[in-house]
């Protein structure tokens, strides 16, 4: 059935109205009518249905279904296993010696530098790297202390003691012990305690009643 036959089946007033609105709406209307009437027939079931060429085809269409890739972080993926802090620290312990050598090299360059601007930049790098090494040693020392504490608790459980689970305040106590040991080894414990007492006295002084005028 051609489009002329379909258009003849439409009333004259309706055709005039559609032509007045626009040829695009008219073509869509005739195409829809012909599809509903079953005009697109196939001579063979293996052949595709013949579609009208008057209907525009979209420029963008999805030809192949593509699965959406969801990004994932292996640190929070249970399939990637659990992080072993001790094994990780032992595997990359060689980086500490590299940083120590780099720090020594930077300190030598600071002594040799004559330009003030370059000397200031090198000194800043030395301070940053020295602080990083210090924090790494502190973290490693704390981790070793916690590991030793867990080992002692496991042995105590084997000997019949009830299991003990370390809380946040217990971990804080271990951190304070390590801090006092470091201060004692460096000889700064007395200065630290003096500053601590002065700070506490200033806090208490704020709550004392003021003198009347």
Automatic annotation (TrEMBL):
This is rRNA biogenesis protein RRP36. Its main location: nucleus. GO terms for biological process: maturation of SSU-rRNA from tricistronic rRNA transcript (SSU-rRNA, 5.8S rRNA, LSU-rRNA). Keywords: Nucleus, Ribonucleoprotein, Ribosome biogenesis, rRNA processing. It comes from the Eukaryota. Residues 147-156 have a biased composition (Basic and acidic residues). Residues 29-52, 137-161, 189-213 are annotated as: Disordered. One of its GO terms (cellular component) is 90S preribosome. Component of the 90S pre-ribosome involved in the maturation of rRNAs. Required for early cleavages of the pre-RNAs in the 40S ribosomal subunit maturation pathway. It is found in: Nucleus, Nucleolus. Associates with 90S and pre-40S pre-ribosomal particles. Belongs to the RRP36 family. Residues 29-50 have a biased composition (Polar residues). Pfam families: RRP36. PANTHER family: RIBOSOMAL RNA PROCESSING PROTEIN 36 HOMOLOG.
């Amino acid at each position: 059935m051609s489009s002329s036959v379909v258009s003849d089946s439409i009333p004259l007033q309706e055709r005039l109205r559609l032509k007045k609105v626009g040829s695009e709406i008219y073509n869509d209307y005739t195409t829809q009518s012909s599809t509903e009437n079953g005009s697109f027939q196939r001579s063979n079931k293996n052949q595709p249905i013949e579609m009208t060429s008057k209907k525009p085809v979209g420029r963008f269409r999805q030809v192949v279904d593509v699965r959406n890739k969801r990004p994932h972080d292996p640190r929070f993926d249970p399939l990637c296993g659990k992080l072993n802090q001790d094994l990780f620290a032992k595997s990359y312990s060689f980086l500490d010696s590299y940083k120590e050598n780099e720090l020594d090299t930077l300190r030598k360059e600071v002594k040799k530098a004559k330009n003030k601007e370059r000397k200031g930049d090198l000194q800043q790098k030395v301070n940053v790297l020295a602080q990083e090494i210090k924090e790494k040693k502190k973290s490693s020392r704390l981790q070793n202390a916690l590991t030793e504490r867990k080992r002692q608790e496991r042995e105590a459980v084997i000997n019949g003691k009830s299991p003990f689970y370390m809380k946040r305040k217990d971990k804080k106590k271990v951190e304070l012990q390590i801090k006092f040991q470091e201060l004692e080894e460096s000889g700064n414990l007395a200065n630290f305690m003096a500053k601590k007492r002065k700070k506490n006295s200033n806090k208490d002084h704020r709550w004392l009643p003021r003198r009347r005028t």
